[in-house]
Amino acid sequence: MQQSTAIFWPVFVQVALIYLVYYLLFSRRQAEVKAGRARLSQFRDNAAEPDETRALKNNLTNQYELPVLFMVGCLASYATGNADLLAVLLAWLFVALRIVHAVIHIGQNRLRHRVPVFIAGYVVNGLLWLWLAINIAIV
């Protein structure tokens, strides 16, 4: 596997995580409607998201915030020829942290566990961008 294309494997895993959260949200919403604890109309504009699905909905929204910067950073690293070993390792670390963050958010949702994992991902994503900037600056 070429070093430059290796940057896409963590992106594929991040995309798979997003699809998994979509599936879980749909399944849980469907179960709430079937059980009579929610009405389909509650999901029309998400104004009355049931407690049982709120963490999933919030996590799905969160997957379109910092991970978008990650994906663009990976694409930029590849496009500029800077998807080296460090960039790939940072990308894998970011995705691992996003998975842990999602498990905490969807599960127990304890901020004392979730916030440090989010901050670590934030820093790793920043380092990926910094590494890209440094590589572009020295070329």
SSE diagram, text form:
Elements (H helix, E strand, L loop, with lengths): L2 H4 L1 H27 L16 H12 L3 H14 L5 H22 L4 H27 L2
Features:
single chain; 139 residues; mainly alpha; Four Helix Bundle (Hemerythrin (Met), subunit A); 6 helices; elongated
Please sum up the structure shown.
The chain is mainly α. Helix content is 76%, strand content 0%. The protein contains six helices and no strands.
SS strand fraction: under 5%
Query: What is the name of the CATH topology?
Result: Four Helix Bundle (Hemerythrin (Met), subunit A)
* Level-2 CATH architecture: Up-down Bundle
Structural domain count: 1
User: Which term fits the overall shape?
Assistant: elongated
Average per-residue pLDDT, rounded, comes to 94
